[in-house]
Amino acid sequence: MFSDDQLTQNAFLGGRLTLFQPRDGYRAGVDPVLLASVVPARAGQSVLELGCGAGAAILSLLTRVAGMQGHGVELQPDYADLACRNAALNELPLDVTCADLSTLPNALRQQRFHHVIANPPYYRSGAHSQARDMGRSVALGGDTPLATWVEVAARRLLPKGYLHIIQRTDRLPELITACEGRLGALEVLPLAARPGRAPDLVILRARKEGKSPFRLHAPQILHQGDRHTADIESYVAEIRSVLRDGAALKWPDAR
Q1: Which pLDDT does position 195 carry in this prediction?
Q2: How far is Cα 39 from Cα 249, in angstroms, rounded to an integer?
Q3: I need a labelling partner for 56 at 20 to 30 A (CA). Which of 118, 138, 164, 188 fits?
């Protein structure tokens, strides 16, 4: 368990959400907030996050959509405890199970959810094995294949439920292959830092029992201008609204 002197307290969503994070371990940036912003959730629904860490993504979603019930799964006990602490701090309905997502306890395997979200490690196992902090090393380069993340998510979804995953663009083929025979109606939203740049990240949306054709959307641009010119915030209006106000991010040409 992290001690108080190992933590910082940080504001998200313009101060609507406050999170304790490890001072030297894995710290959430904008990616989990963007992930939470694209989920088409509504009050009365349930959401499961696989690999919830300290809770940045799922707590952002529960802040944006009141009246939902959240459940997180986290491998590392210190981070699972921190997610519980952050949920209590913000008075949000989140239960957390400390477990390997590939060997979930029986009670959780009996549950189904309207939404599953995940921000799996961006790198393959061992890519960050030399990181100074073990929590950061696991978060950036875990051992569990992306196919397992998708398989577990598909099993936990209710019929017509949605999976949303944020991941590096070069791993998109793995995600699409993993969805075959499990999830359909795949849509991909590329995230590009600036106009004219290749997207580094994508958000994949897939639906249980979905039948619609695959859709590749136009990239969502994150920053204004074609380059960084000063040490100031440069997010485009849509992204500022997500990060400051907790707004939903609408996909281009959304169905």
Answers
A1: 93
A2: 8
A3: 188
Helix (H/G/I), strand (E/B), else coil: 63: helix
DSSP string, 112-127: -EEEEEE---SS-TTT
What's the CA gap between 82 and 103, in Å, rounded? 21
Tell me how far apart the alpha carbons of residues 86 and 94 are, in angstroms, rounded to a whole number: 9
pLDDT tens sequence across 89-138? 999 999 999 999 999 999 999 999 999 999 999 987 655 445 555 554 44
pTM of the model: 0.91
Tokens describing residue 171: 């791993």
- Strands 201-207, 184-192: parallel, antiparallel or unpaired by DSSP? antiparallel
What is the Cα–Cα distance from 61 to 38, expressed in whole angstroms?
9
Question: What are the start-end ranges of the E strands in 13-156?
Answer: 17-22, 46-50, 69-74, 94-98, 113-118
E strands, the chain, are: 7-12, 17-22, 46-50, 69-74, 94-98, 113-118, 157-168, 184-192, 201-207, 215-216, 220-221
Q: Mean pLDDT, to the nearest integer, of 9-16?
A: 95
223 DSSP 8-state letter: B
Q: Which residue has the tokens 């939203």?
A: 189
Asked if 159 and 190 touch (Cβ cutoff 8 Å), the reply is no
Q: Is 88 left (phi over 0), alpha (psi -120 to 50) or beta?
A: alpha
Q: Determine whether 225 is exposed, middle or buried from the number of CB atoms within 10 Å of its CB (0-12, 13-18, 19+).
A: exposed
Pairwise CA distance, residues 188 & 172, whole Å: 9
205: CB partners within 8 A, 6+ apart: 38, 162, 163, 164, 185, 186, 187, 188, 189, 251
